[in-house]
Amino acid sequence: MTYTVGMPKLWSATIDAHRRDVRDAILDATAKLVAERGLSAVAMSEVAEVSGIGRATLYKYFADVPAILTAWHERQVSAHLAELETVREQSGNAGDRLGLVLERFAMISHEHHDTELVALLHRGDHMVHAHDRLRAMVRDLIAEGAKAGELRDDVSPGELATYCLHALTAASSLPSKPAVKRLVNVTLAGLRRSP
Q1: Using an 8 Å Cβ cutoff, are 191 and 142 in contact?
Q2: 14 and 54 together in one domain
């Protein structure tokens, strides 16, 4: 006899919520420890202690610290993409929305400076999908702006999206937010249709 057939949906939702909470606690504890001590100084026993989760439970979720960090990074990247999609959906013309998306992307790059952890995690397979989504978002806004006559149409929107995103990753090495805004303005100027 199987017990899942007549189980109320509330019970299932509660278990899922509990699992998400446990997973989030593990991810947050690991990120905190890595920020405090460095990547190589964190052990699974410390993650269990800081997160308040037993070691046996911890190993049911993750095999090791690198697996936890990869999951943490995937969560961060997903949150950034969701934020950029929200910005993209604001009202206004395509050029204005593109400017908002590019500025927010540049600020995210600036706020998350290149560290040992970022360098390690940006090599993951999950980044390929994230880059594809971001590039498509920017490409579609550029195409919409070109169709409306706001942005240049002499270069394909895909090429322009790649150009923009590569240019704006330089924001991670800029000294200030005003410098990031200047970089965004220079990038946007290159997208505008010539008079």
Answers
A1: yes
A2: yes
